[in-house]
Structures are given as C-alpha cells and as structure tokens.
Amino acid sequence: MTTAADYTVAVRALCDFTAKRGDLDLRFTPSPSAEEGIEGHARVAARREAHYQREISLSGLYRSASGHRLRVRGRADGYDPRRQRLEEIKTHRGDLARQPENHRHLHWAQLHLYGWLLCEAHELETLELALVYFDVARQVETPLVQRMSRAALYDVFVTHCEAFLDWALRETAHREARDRALETLRFPFADWQGEQRALAENVYKAASTGRCLLAQAPTGTGKTLGTLFPMLKAMPRQRLDGLCYLAAKTPGRQLALDALAPLVAPTPLRVLELTARDKACEHPDRACHGESCPLAAGFFDKLPAARRAVIEHGWWDRARLREIALAHDVCPYYLGQEMARWSDVSVADYHYYFDTGGLLHALSQANDWRLGVLVDEAHNLVERARDMYSATLDQGDLRALIREKPAGVTAALKQLNREWNALGRECEAEHCPLPEIPGDWLSALHRLIGTIGQVASEPPYTLSPTLQRFYFDALKMARIAERFDRHFVCDITLRQGARGLRHARLSLRNLVPASMLAPRFAAAHASVLFSATLTPSRYQRDLLGLPGDSVWQEVDSPFASDQLEVRIARHISTRFHERQASLTPIAALIAETYARRPGNYLAFFSSFAYLEDVVAQLREHHPEVPHWQQSRGMDEAARHAFLARFTPHGQGVGFAVLGGAFGEGIDLPGERLVGAFIATLGLPQVNPVNEQRRRFMQTMFGAGYDYAYLYPGIQKVIQAAGRVIRGREDRGTIHLIDDRFDQPRVRALLPRWWRITSSVDEGNSQPRQAPLG
Q1: Taking 80 as the threshold, does the pLDDT of residue 263 lie above it?
Q2: What share of the chain has pLDDT > 70, as a percent?
C-alpha cells in the first residue's frame, strides 16, 4: 500500500521498471505455465538438503538524501544457510543459450535485490548467488553462480531505488490527489434513474464489507454507471489500489468508457482500455521481436519516455495509446500491458482477469493489490469461463503439418499422429467420451511441445504460421491437462476429412468452472456481478464458485408494466421436428403485427438456417414488409450498417440470430425499435456434447436439463427482449413464439415486471402441454 510516508514496491515490479532493456523479444517464450513453474520450483527444492529454506519473505527500506522512503519487499525462492547461498529459480523450455540477454539481465537484477535484502536481514558480509534455470521438459538444472559482497549488493540496491524514486513520488502524489477527488466526486446527473440508486447502495455496501454481490437488474436500470460510481466512491475509504471493469464483448467495454468519461473530467483518475492483441497489432505479419518488428526493436529502451507521455493524460483508451505508442516508436499493445501497472480503472475483456494467465489478476497477486472487480453482463461468464478452461486439438491440423514437413519436428508430429490413430480406432461412435486423458497421447503431445520449443529457439529457424498456431494450441491443451479433475470431461469426436480419412478431435471440456473462478473472486477485495438475466441465482452460485457469503439483489424494473405488451404465440411450436410447419404462421404473425403498427422490429431465431427459411417465406407471401438480415461472419462495418437501418420513425424488420451480435449490448431507444419477435426458447442444440453436459449436470446438481438447456436458453430470450424498452417514454411489443413459453416452469423464469396481456391462440383454444424439449 502507498502512504504519504513511504511507497512499497515488490522486487519483481521494481526490476520490471528499472532493469528491462533492449528489444521486446518473445522468441524464448511461451514460458512454462504457472502450474509447471510451481512444480519446477518444488522439484528443485526437493533436491536440496533438509536445512534448505524455501520461500523466504524479505523486506528492506531505502532512505534518500531528501528523506523519502521506499520499502522494497519480496519472496526469494530458496536459501541454504550453511553454504550462505541464495537461489532464484527460473523455469524454462528450450536451449538456454538462446535466451535473450535482456531476459537474463532482468533475472540477475531480481536476485541481486533479494541478495541485499537477505544480507541486511541476516547481517551477512558476503553471499553466494545462484540463478538456477530449470528445464521443465528435461528436468535439468543449469546454475549460474556469483559471489558478491554486502557492499556491492547495497550499491545495486541503491541504484535501482534511486532510478525508481521519482516515479514512486509521482505515484504517491497521484494516489493522494485521486483519493481526495473521489471523496468529493458527485453523481454526474441531477437524478438517479429509477432503481439505479438501490443498485448503487448495494454496490457500495459490497465494497465496504469486502463481499461479493450478485445483482440482477433489468435492462435500462443504468447498471454501468450504477456500479462504477459507488465503487469509485468506495476506493479511498477502502484503500483500493484499482478497479477492474470486465465485459464480455466490445459494446460493453464501450458503455463503460462512455460512463467513465464524465467521471474522469473532474478527477485525476487514470482509465485504461485493454484490447486484444490482434486488434492492437500494427504489424500482424511480423513476429514479436526486434529483428522482425520495428515496434519491438529497442522497446524497453524507449518505454520510459512513452510511459511518461501516457501519464500526462488520464484517459488511456485504445486511440490515445496508439497515438503515443507510434509517436515513440513502440508497440501499442505492449504499451497498454505495461500501463496496466499504473492505471486506476482498467476496462477489459473477462480474460484479462479470469483466464489462467490473466494479466490483471497476475499483477494484483504480484503487487498485493486490493482490487474492486465489476463483471458486466455476468450471465456470459459461465460459458466464457468454460471456453477459457477448455482445449481442443484436431488431428486434421496435425496431418496438414506433417505434409509441410517442418525441419526437426516431423518425427514428433508423426509420433503424435500414431497415438491419435490408435484412439480413433477405439472409437465406435462419432462422439466418444473418455474416462481420463489418454496417457500415451498426452506423453506424445509433451514430446512434440518440447521439440518445437527446442527448434524454435535456434535462429534462423522460424515457425510457420500453421505450426505456431498448433504449438500455442498444444501448449493450452497441456496447461488444461494439468488442471483436469472431476469438473472436466475428455472426449473424442470423429469427422470425415477431405481425403477420405477420419480425423479425431480431442477435447478437454470444463463443465463447471467454479473451482477455477473461485480463487479469482477470493483475490478481489470486493466483486460485483450484474446482468438482467441471472435467475435462478443458485445456477450462478453453483457454476461460478462465488464466495459463500455472497449477496443476491434483484432490482425492481424502472419501467411500468403497461410500457411493454408481451404476447405468447401458443399456436406455434418451434421444436426442431415442427419447424417447417412453423414458417408460414411465423411469417404471417410478423406481417400482421407490422401492418397493425408499422415501425422497426427485430426478429430473433435460433439459427441462420431457421432465420433464412422464415425470410424466404416472408419475401414470398408478404413482400410488402421491408426487411434486412444478419449474415454469417458479419464484420464490424456490416454490423454497423445493420443497426443503422433502425432510424427514428423507420419501418422494417431486422432478422438476427438469438444470442448473437444483436441479441444484447445494443441500444435502440424510442422509435428506433418498437417490438421484437423471439422464436424458440433459445435452447442449445441437442447433440452428443450437450447431452454429455446434461448427464454431468444431472449427476452433480440434480438439474441436468435446466442447467444444460433451459437456463442458458431463457437467458438469451430475456436479453433479446431487453432491446425493446430502453427508457421511460418507450412503448413496445414482444412476441414470444412457442407454446412452451406459457408453461409454468418457463413463465417463472421470465421477468416479474412483464405483464403478459394476451396470448395468440388461433384455431386452438387450449395451450399445448407437451414437454419442453
């Protein structure tokens, strides 16, 4: 924590600031995973004698001539008191001789600082320092040894502290100014929006008590500002180091930035937008090292000037970072990564905190930060987390690589292919669940990873794009395999290849991400997850690993029930085997509604095929209805053009896929949208993978169908319906097209404020009582 008296910095953070130099160079990476690193450290320590001390906490104080103090702390890997030998253990892959010089320079700097702190603590006059590199593939140690005096180590310590002191003083002043400004920060509008204040009060309570809040608030409540403002107000009193605003999609991050803009203006608050690497990269055809990319050359030498330029401003969005980065000839993406250490609010995708290698979580752990975490549209987190913690490899990709015959790698590729063939021969069906990860296949995968890592570290060898992509996918598979437990399943899916060969796709699927997410929530001082669709709360608690004392809040709608007319089309079934029969009545319902009240409508369907069939029916029998449709693989410009058709007082029907780009996160207020048609319950497709999930959920929670199909589907329906009413003056209609919407167990999941005023029931006086599936 930072105070007026001193500034505390971790050894690693201090060295990252003062000891990095030269090019940005990722050729010696990817480094071993966190689990491999922990296991490697344990293996090295296990080889030491009984008196060997592990994980030694160290701390020391630097006092400048002007009286300023800098406290440096950290945890050294191991110490042998009999030999007076301090060790810093670094795990690696590949030929150590190919390690970039600046990587090793950084590692020595860390060890030198630990050395001084140990000498000071134990009153040692000399110390042996061992930088121990451990190859996780070969299980071999390579020690590099120095002996240094206490005085020499103190000189190194002073050099680093003096290089950092000015920045530390600036950070202390910034923190004090920021907290003073936040204490007096006023809500940026004259009035709160409906129940927005009730939401804000509960967010503030969660921050004050250090708890997790799960808040369901209808679309239009003003959730973004209603969560950001109270968390910012809580920062000074709760001594929060920073705030992470995490969103599933780009529109959610933009809404957060829009809400933050009026809050930043009267404060020195630093707001950082973190973007994906592929969106921020200026040279996607170049590799990330100085010999290939001009923005990687001398990156760390040019970083200090770029960093100083960034902090002259408080608004660090993608455009600002790019402007400053290019002015200083550095990579915009990695400049953003560096500035995450110094931001007050980071607006980012979920993976920056929740993924196994999430930058924001890693920084919070390394620097002992107290963080507030806001999770926007949290109904997405279950599926996103499953994706983060799952991995798939396709044998077809492997065979394509074998045909490329990459030098030094082909034999290892063929060995993995033989193991894959053996698995394929054992599968009698298209989808084959396995009780565990096949051991011989996994061993062959590890050998391939080691081989690729070895040859990739030997210049002038360059991985082809396809080999590099497979390598990264293989590394993810290996990392997920380390975490494989009862919350995962392993399966093989067979498919026919272009050459008549059967390809086997092996997947490790995480079904319950709770055990992976729980440490992330535990690491935050306070977390708030909010969405319009979090019912039932037990589903979220079971799958997200929330703390036991988490609080549930259901915010009342700010809208009157007479603003929205909800109609259930009970005479139509959209079950898969009845879809052909549903096309004519759905097209008729759309045309009839449009004729009665011309205006802009959205029509949602469960798939592109279903959507296209209804569009064809509408075009043939009701050509007078203007319409446009979402297409497969729409880019950003096409999505913008789709939404641009929804003009005030415009007329027409936009067809979209339920759960897709237009099903949430878009704002079409007033006459830009007067109604929506939602066909199907949004249930996931019945297939072997989803049936495996259903059986798993039944065994674990006793609610297999609900957890695998019903709850995810209804979430998409409610999100799509939430596009219609965006303000207190809006009026609209929603048509829920399927008789199953009228069943009690489904009606119980729909928003309480909805008043279903009528049901379309043409030619059938009784609603159907068929099963949900």
Answers
A1: yes
A2: 96
Tokens of 634: 């729409």
Q: Residue 661 maps to which CATH number?
A: 3.40.50.300
Report the alpha-carbon distance of residue 200 to residue 216 in Å, rounded.
Answer: 12
Identify whether residues 601 and 747 lie together within a single domain: yes
Same domain, 148 and 252: no
Number of domains in the chain: 4
Range of the domain at 228: 192-387+523-554
Interacting residues of 719 by C-beta distance below 8 A, sequence separation 6+? 219, 379, 532, 533, 659, 663, 664
- For residues 235 and 289, membership in a common domain is answered with yes
Contact 106, 67 (CB under 8 A): no
- What residues form DSSP beta bridges with 133? 90, 142
Q: Is residue 452 part of a domain?
A: yes
Q: What are phi and psi of 534, to 5 degrees?
A: -120, 5
Q: How far apart, in whole angstroms, are the C-alpha atoms of residue 480 and residue 491?
A: 14
Domain with residue 54: its CATH number is: 3.90.320.10
Query: Taking the CB of residue 735, how many other CB atoms lie within 10 A of it?
Result: 24
Same structural domain, 418 and 303:
no
Is residue 742 over pLDDT 70?
yes
User: What's the DSSP call for residue 380?
Assistant: G
Query: 245 near 210, Cβ under 8 Å?
Result: no
Residue 450 one-letter amino acid: G
Query: What are the DSSP E strand ranges found in 650-763?
Result: 652-657, 675-679, 732-737, 756-760
Helices within 405-498 (DSSP H only): 410-426, 439-456, 465-483
72-81 tens-digit pLDDT: 999 999 999 9
In-domain check, residue 184: no
Cα dihedral 260, 646, 659, 657, rounded to 10, equals: -160
Question: For the segment 657-667, what is each residue's pLDDT rounded down to a tens digit?
Answer: 999 999 988 88
Residues 420 and 355 in one domain: no
| 348 and 203 fall within a common domain | yes
Are 93 and 137 spatial neighbours (Cβ–Cβ below 8 Å)?
yes
Q: Are residues 335 and 203 in the same domain?
A: yes
Is 151 domain-assigned?
Answer: yes
Residue 766 domain flag = no
Bridge-based pairing of strands 371-375 and 526-531 is parallel
Q: Are strands 675-679 and 600-605 parallel, antiparallel or unpaired?
A: parallel
> pLDDT tens for residues 14-68?
999 999 999 998 776 557 777 788 888 999 999 999 999 999 999 999 999 989 9
Say if residues 758 and 569 touch (Cβ distance below 8 Å): no
Strands 600-605 and 652-657: what pairing?
Answer: parallel
CA 373 from chain centre, in angstroms, equals 13
